[in-house]
Specification:
Rossmann fold, alpha/beta, 16 helices, binds 5-phosphoarabinonic acid, 10 strands
Length: about 425
């Protein structure tokens, strides 16, 4: 298991962020950090995530492991229904780790409004046994509610009422919402999303843990990583904690006109981690007419598309690279006698070696092209390291939101499209 401490490399910020900038912003960072730890600032009613990894009790973990373990041990397909904070965290973990860990199919649904998507999903699972995990804190979000209705209707034609009951598990509020009512009335097993944890900060609660356990991934390692990161932050304090440093850098850059941050990973399996990160920062900070636009790239794929813009487009960008220090499998480059492709100079090296050089070259080229960048190094693709990364970025998003003068834990703006849509749909 990869277990190294996270590192933040800031070498390629030279000339863009100075020690003086740090000294100037430090009082604000210390204030924000104290507010978070003492839980006495904006959005304080949504700070349950700060201590949750430490407080998740043995009974709760056992229950997740029992249900998740049962689902994992069956050959049946699993459909996880949810959107936004009730979807991206679990998907990011499963996409990053599962190809090596599981031999079963996990499908996601309820994160869009495409009928074609749902039809294809149902035709894919029509001859298989299926378990469903439906996740919605409010229990009223249209996308997952609609998908659940359609998938449940399909399952009702497949199973008896008794069997159906054991195949549906709900993760929702402890007392409010349509999903809670439905779970109670139908007698589905259910898990609670704590009141004091908002969607995008909920990956380490049952929202992320249950699907992940169902995929055979070790939830204790995931939580251990988060706990280690939490402890490290508390011990380091605002001046040394890398979450605080990262939050400070983002705000210094934003104040100097860098309005877009690109999270760039050199591993396609981190694609959904980047999606989770975009939601976390976009929804936490994009308020009151100010925002760092969080974008993401999969490198080296996107070096052949977005690379041009990053190198020579408008200089309003900064970049954060997400790089694994170690990779588990070595895929070696063979020697070929005719060397028609001229690649023998790489023979014997691993593809990861080439990827590492691509990263080093990219950070230098982008820096030389006027794009300040930093790198978050993590040990490798393990549940422990993902736990560290989730906690690192959640804390950074909270501090960064406070530095930006917004409440990082609400999302009043997402209601606007819903109001318009419900008007058009004639919702009573
Ligand atoms: O971060 C958030 O609060 C949102 O992204 C929600 O997670 C998302 O809208 C889904 O909400 P719910 O879990 O209530 O269905």
């Amino acid at each position: 298991m990869f277990k190294k401490r996270l590192k933040l490399n800031t070498k390629c910020l030279k000339g863009f962020v100075s020690e003086r900038d740090f000294r100037n912003i430090l009082p604000e960072v210390e204030k924000a950090h104290a507010a978070l730890i003492e839980k006495n600032s904006r959005g304080k009613e949504f700070l349950g995530w700060v201590d949750f990894p430490e407080e998740a009790g043995p009974e709760f973990l056992k229950k997740i492991e029992t249900t998740g373990g049962r689902i994992n041990s069956e050959k049946d397909a699993v459909i996880v229904i949810g959107i936004g904070g009730s979807y991206l965290g679990a998907r990011s973990i499963i996409e990053t780790l599962a190809p090596r860990i599981i031999g079963k199919d996990i499908f996601f649904a309820g994160y869009n409004l495409s009928g074609d998507f749902l039809n294809r999903l149902l035709s894919e699972v029509k001859d298989r046994d299926v378990n469903v995990i439906v996740i919605s804190k409010s229990g009223t979000t249209t996308e997952p509610a609609l998908a659940f209705r359609i998938i449940k209707d399909f399952l009702m034609r497949k199973y008896s009422a008794k069997e159906l009951k054991s195949r549906i598990i709900c993760v929702t509020d402890k007392e409010k919402g349509a999903l809670k009512r439905l779970a109670e009335e139908e007698g589905y097993e259910s898990f609670v999303i704590p009141d004091d944890i908002g969607g995008r900060f909920s990956v380490l609660t049952a929202v992320g843990l249950l699907p992940v356990a169902s995929a055979g991934i070790n939830i204790r390692e995931l939580l251990d990583g988060a706990k280690a990161q939490r402890k490290y932050g508390l011990k380091s304090g605002a001046v040394k904690d890398i979450s605080c440093r990262y939050a400070a850098i983002r705000n210094i850059l934003y104040r100097s006109g860098k309005k877009i941050e690109i999270l760039s990973s050199f591993d396609n399996s981190l694609h959904y981690f980047d999606e989770w990160w975009k939601q976390l920062f976009g929804e936490s900070e994009g308020k009151n007419g100010r925002s760092i636009f969080p974008a993401s790239c999969d490198f080296s794929t996107d070096l052949h598309s977005m690379g041009q813009l990053i190198q020579q487009g408008e200089r309003n960008l900064f970049e954060t690279f997400l790089v694994a220090e170690k990779n588990p499998e070595k895929c070696r480059i063979p020697t070929v006698s005719d060397d028609l492709d001229n690649l023998n100079y790489l023979a014997g090296k691993s593809v990861d070696h080439v990827n590492r050089k691509a990263y080093e070259a990219t950070r230098k080229a982008h820096f030389d092209g006027g794009v300040p960048n930093m790198t978050v190094f993590f040990g490798g693709k393990s549940a422990f390291c993902l736990g560290q990364l989730f906690y690192f970025f959640e804390k950074a998003a909270a501090i960064s939101g406070y530095l930006a003068g917004v409440n990082p834990f609400d999302q009043p703006g997402v209601e606007a499209y819903k109001r318009e849509m419900f008007k058009l749909l004639g919702k009573p």
